[in-house]
């Protein structure tokens, strides 16, 4: 049986391999979370690489939009982004396409790594 440390190390290395091989995956800091009473939510992210994280060439790449047709998924992604912001934890994100003027956040993975 593998120890937790080895398991987390392997998962981290696999995450890095995914990030290195796909331009839309990023390992980032959540620097701000914004939600409106209309049910729209955005996160501001800071990439270690200095990337704009805008693979869809959206007109406003400053904020990434959280969206899902499933309210449970939307709430979970927003909760994870808020935890990452509060606890200063890195996240892995998948950003693909545009939603309105902003890049669409399709996946958010909370990591154990802090900054």
Polypeptide structure, described:
This protein is an alpha+beta fold and 115 residues long. It has one domain (4-114): Beta Barrel (OB fold (Dihydrolipoamide Acetyltransferase, E2P)), CATH 2.40.50. Helices cover 30% and strands 39% of the residues. It has helices at residues 4-21, 71-87, and strands at 25-35, 41-47, 64-66, 89-99, 102-114. Mean pLDDT is 83; it is low at 5-22.
Keywords:
2 helices; 30% helix; 39% strand; globular; OB fold (Dihydrolipoamide Acetyltransferase, E2P); alpha+beta; 115 residues
Q: Give the second-level CATH assignment, the architecture.
A: Beta Barrel
Biggest beta sheet summary: 5 strands, mixed, barrel
- Uncertain parts: 5-22
Q: If helices are DSSP runs of H or I spanning 4 or more residues, what is the number of helices? A: 2
Q: What's the order of the H and E elements? A: HEEEHEE
**How many structural domains does the protein architecture include?**
1
Strand arrangement in the largest pleated sheet: 1-2-3-5-4
Mean pLDDT: 83
Percentage of residues assigned to helices: 25-40%
Q: Report the CATH topology name.
A: OB fold (Dihydrolipoamide Acetyltransferase, E2P)
- End-to-end CA span: 29 Å
Number-wise, the strands total 5
Oligomer: single chain
Strand content: 35-45%
Radius of gyration from the alpha-carbon trace, in angstroms: 14 Å
Overall, the morphology is: globular
The CATH C-level class name: Mainly Beta
């Amino acid at each position: 049986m593998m120890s937790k440390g080895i398991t987390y190390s392997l998962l981290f290395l696999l995450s890095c391999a995914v990030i290195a091989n796909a331009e839309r995956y990023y390992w980032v800091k959540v620097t701000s979370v914004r939600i409106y009473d209309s049910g729209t939510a955005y996160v501001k992210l800071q990439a270690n690489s200095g990337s704009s994280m805008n693979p869809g060439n959206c007109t406003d790449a400053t904020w990434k939009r959280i969206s899902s047709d499933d309210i449970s998924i939307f709430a979970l992604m927003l909760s994870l982004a808020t935890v990452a912001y509060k606890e200063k934890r890195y996240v892995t994100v998948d950003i693909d396409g545009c939603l309105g003027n902003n890049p669409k956040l399709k996946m958010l993975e909370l990591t154990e790594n802090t900054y």
